[in-house]
Structures are given as structure tokens and as C-alpha cells.
UniProtKB/TrEMBL annotation:
Pfam families: Response_reg. The lineage of its organism: Bacteria, Pseudomonadati, Bacteroidota, Sphingobacteriia, Sphingobacteriales. InterPro entries: CheY-like_superfamily, Sig_transdc_resp-reg_receiver, ST_Response_Regulator. This is Response regulator. The keyword ATP-binding does not apply. PROSITE patterns: RESPONSE_REGULATORY.
């Protein structure tokens, strides 16, 4: 099985470090991790690869509350600009927000797989990856 490209959009450096470590240590498949510290940096990256679908992520994890461009603004930009990977790559919201407004916003974006409330541990990450890999078989 080829390597998998996972994008994490998250401004908390400690969470990024741990999450990236979980992904790099995943035993079932090699994972290439792209980390962006805010939605604007991720958006700029996605714009730069818009015409290169082979560079699209296989899975995306997005925090909500970030500087410059929050997670919902990033998701909306991906929708408005017709990025096809939002319909093929599982997208997860990973947030410490338990706000019913944030959780309810999922209804606007049916393609988002799940709203995960932090903290998420290694086993939680691996369950998501295992489920994805099982669907490929």
C-alpha cells in the first residue's frame, strides 16, 4: 500500500507535535504529514496545488479556533472554490469547543466525517486511520 498524505490544520504546537508523532508511528501504513498552523496557511497551500490533484490530501484534520482564518472559513473556502478532495478525502473537525453552534455547523457540511472533541489519544487516531484503510480494501 502506498503512503498516505494527511493534512493537519492546527495552531496548538503541543497538539501538532503529538498528533504528528501518532501519525508517523502508525504501524499499518507510512503517512506523510503536512501541518499548517492556521487556516490561511493551509488555504494558501491548497490554492498552490489546486491544479495538481496528485498532491491533494488523503485525509484532513481541521481545528476550528485559529488565528487569521478559522477552520469553518477554511472549509467554506474549499467548498466555494470547488476543491474536489472535500468529497473524496475524509475531513474531520478536531476541536476543544463543545459549543452546540460549532457542533451544529456540521449540518452545513455533510461531507465532514466527524466532529472530534480534544483531547484525542493515539488509539483514537489509529481507529480513524484503520477505518479509512479498511475502506480501501
Amino acid at each position: 500500500m502506498s503512503s498516505m498524505r494527511v493534512t493537519l490544520v492546527e495552531d496548538n504546537a503541543i497538539f501538532c507535535f503529538l498528533f504528528k508523532k501518532f501519525l508517523e508511528d502508525y504501524p499499518s501504513r507510512k503517512i506523510d504529514v503536512e501541518v499548517f498552523s492556521d487556516g490561511k496557511k493551509a488555504w494558501d497551500h491548497f490554492l498552490s496545488i489546486k491544479d495538481a490533484p496528485n498532491l491533494y490530501p488523503d485525509m484532513v484534520f481541521i481545528d476550528i479556533n485559529m488565528p487569521f482564518m478559522n477552520g469553518w472559513e477554511l472549509v467554506e473556502n474549499l467548498v466555494v472554490n470547488s476543491f474536489e478532495f472535500i468529497h473524496t478525502a475524509p475531513i474531520y473537525i478536531v476541536s476543544s469547543s463543545k459549543s452546540s453552534l460549532d457542533i451544529g455547523k456540521l449540518q452545513e457540511y455533510k461531507f465532514i466525517k466527524e466532529y472530534i472533541i480534544k483531547p484525542i489519544d493515539r488509539e483514537g487516531v489509529y481507529q480513524i486511520l484503520d477505518k479509512y484503510n479498511e475502506n480501501l480494501l
